[in-house]
Amino acid sequence: MKAVVYNEYAPDDNYAKILKVQDIDEPKPKSDEVIFTNKASALNYNDIWGMRGVPVAVPLPHVSGSDVAGDVIAVGDDVKNFKVGDKVVSHSNLACRVCQACTDGREFDCTKRQVWGFQTGPLWGAYSEQIHLPEVNVSKIPEGVSYDDAAAASMTLLTSWHMLVGRAKIIPGQTVLVMGGGSGVGSFAIQISKLYQCDVIATASPDKLEKCLELGADYAVDHRKEDWHKDVFKISKELAKKKGQAPGIDVSFDHIGQTHWNKQLTLLKYGATLVSCGATTGYDAHTDLRHIFFKGTNILGSTQGTKAELDQGLYWMGQGKIKAAIDSTYTFENAAEAHTKMLTGKGLFGKILMKPEGA
Questions:
Q1: Quick check: 93 and 117 in contact, CB under 8 A?
Q2: What residues are paired with 203 via a beta bridge?
Q3: Which of 100, 170, 283, 286 is most buried, judging by how many CB atoms fall within 10 Å of its CB?
Q4: Which H, E and C letters describe the chain, residue by residue?
Q5: Helix pair 184-195, 307-318: axis angle to 10 deg
């Protein structure tokens, strides 16, 4: 079968040099595994980390990709919940399932966990024509959800759902600030917050503001402006008058990190929450601790989520309440172009998909 393979790292981000479509062996199911076709797979930033070889030296030769949807074509002897013909999508958090964290429902805290397609291998990831995964790492796609939407949602909807519902525990009526609303996680965060009937202020670059509003954000602010936080606070004051509450943000959804971190803290109400899943602009953020201890701020870290949370998000996609924002679709042969677009982010809104020829 065909797969997008690299046999060396590209610390200079020269993806065209290393990414090649090659033939690899078709998988045969282990007793607990499901095999399914690749109808659509989606890019994540960890694909770039893998190709750079930092911060994790991933196994070589490597097939990347953590998000993929398709049709089941074979199941192992011990598989109970899937059959040939089922429409399925990957859940990429490979946890041990037996440690204290896992049995406590915190598989995302498992010290043995790996992100499938990023840390696994050799030659075990989403960018191949056929996929094999343990049954516990496969979810059924609800009626009415396309392969494209499911693949785009696999990791990013899960991450956003876990951040807002699992960690921040948002409640109706709150004011939620979604940083980077044009990203995959940001686009889902807008919709999850509206599902919970929150007031949503999204930030993005100027060319993405209108699309954030189209997804459901009540307000959109240009976060490239030096005083972007003043615009956010002004909006929060307007909302506060309507609600009879103090101005400020109840929950800030962050994956930007260093450049916007401390200004987010200034916007939070007393007892409010900032939940973070990443730091695309850098990890060495300045923190004014007065905004932490004096205001009783909750700072929450978050990474991926449980399979149950993925299923919850997919359920609401099936109900038409959440949709995937898909920027563009590439074939395996254009993998280098797809990853370059993700790296630069120029004009990018939502997820980039990649498919085998004929999918």
A1: no
A2: 221
A3: 170
A4: CEEEEECCCCCCCCHHHHCEEEECCCCCCCCCEEEEECCEEECCHHHHHHHHCCCCCCCCCECCCCEEEEEEEEECCCCCCCCCCCEEEECCEECCCCCHHHHCCCHHHCCCCEECCCCCCCCCCCCECEEEEEHHHEEECCCCCCHHHHHHHCCHHHHHHHHHHHHCCCCCCCEEEECCCCCHHHHHHHHHHHHCCCEEEEEECHHHHHHHHHHCCCEEEECCCCCHHHHHHHHHHHHHHHHCCCCCEEEEEECCCCCCHHHHHHHEEEEEEEEECCCCCCCCCCCCCHHHHCCCCEEEECCCCCHHHHHHHHHHHHCCCCCCCEEEEEEHHHHHHHHHHHHHCCCCCCEEEEECCCC
A5: 70
Residue 328 has pLDDT above 90, yes or no: yes
The Cα 178–Cα 220 span in angstroms is: 9
The 8 Å CB, 24+ separation contacts for 230-237 are 232/177, 232/201, 232/203, 232/267, 233/266, 233/267, 235/201, 236/175, 236/201, 236/267
With CA atoms as reference, report the closest residue to 135 among 63, 25, 31: 31
**What average pLDDT does the chain have?**
96
Q: DSSP state, 30? A: -
Q: Is the dihedral of CA 77, 78, 84, 88 positive or negative?
A: negative
pLDDT in tens, 198-207: 999 999 999 9
Could you write out the DSSP letters of every residue in 282-347? -S-----THHHHTTT-EEEE-----HHHHHHHHHHHHTTS----EEEEEEGGGHHHHHHHHHH-TT
Tokens of 47: 């694909």
Instruction: Determine the pLDDT at residue 299.
Output: 97
So what's the pLDDT on residue 279?
A: 87
**Phi and psi dihedrals of 57, rounded to 5?**
-80, 90
One-letter identity of residue 232:
V
Q: Which pLDDT score, from 0 to 100, does residue 129 have?
A: 98
Residue 128 has pLDDT above 90, yes or no: yes
